[in-house]
Amino acid sequence: MLFGAAVSAGTLLVGCTSNESKDEEPAANDRPAADDKPGKPVTIGFAGPQADHGWLNAINDNAKSRAKKYSDVTLEITEGSNDTAQQIGQIETLINKKVDVLVVLPADGKALTQVGLKAMRAGIPVVNLDRIFNTPQAYRCWVGGDNYGMGLNAGHYIGEKLKGKSDARVIELAGLDNLELTKQRTQGFDDALKNYPNIKKVARQAAEFTVESGQAKMAQLLQAQPKFDALWNHDDDQGVGALRAIDQAGRDDFLMVGGAGALAAFQAIKQDSGVLKATVLYPPTMAASAIDLARALGQGKGVGGLAEFEIPASITLYSAVVDKTNVDQYMSTGFK
Which residues form the Periplasmic binding protein domain (predicted)? Predict the structure, then answer.
């Protein structure tokens, strides 16, 4: 999974209301909250990058399928582009169509900040999905994954598995090093390992989030490291290539933890016949949640189960660890 903005695991920053007097307002729980019952019709504009990666394709699928669940939602979805200027043009078209709410996963958060601001100034609330704009003024709500939390949870899982082993050695197959999210994942992993003085990270290699790069870089790691106990791979797509290299080398003397939550990874974990024992989620279901939030915004409702009148300003999804003990629970969310 290529994309993200790091906020500490489980962050939920709730929007404030202007009047909380019990004498003047009904109790928060008496206020309308979003539910599945048909309500005010809402047109949601959805703009994301080109679906050139399994995770991004799952983002689009989650948005479309969630919108179909609601008879009161019309989804205006763009073709998607990794070209910044083209995506800006697509979003401006949605603004000109006067959609009620926008959901935007920007190809480049910094570069698309201005068009987010343009929508907000036009009175169209923006749900900023995953890659974050430069200023909170460009969105009403941000929802996305936790890259630091991915590394942290991967490190703790490996740490607990190797807790009783002296002089344990681990290696890391990272993603693109020029991306901030890769640095965040590595930082979380390193911070977790500090809790386990018996473990030393002996090697790290950056791949490119592709099957081909995963295979090539993993082959290099295996050649340079004849003995280690665990591997953390940042991305399940490049993990397909990594597993090929591992099979070709005939290695099965370590455990592997992946990242993102691909269906192939879940299936391998369930089968439990190879080195892949777990993966840490970066769930594409965030797109379905973004549709839910956009619908609530368009209908002027809050979130069920929360006391606040408004939807939150920021929601960070949790990077759960999936292994053979809970893989069946997550199988339906796996992406191809």
Answer: 44-301
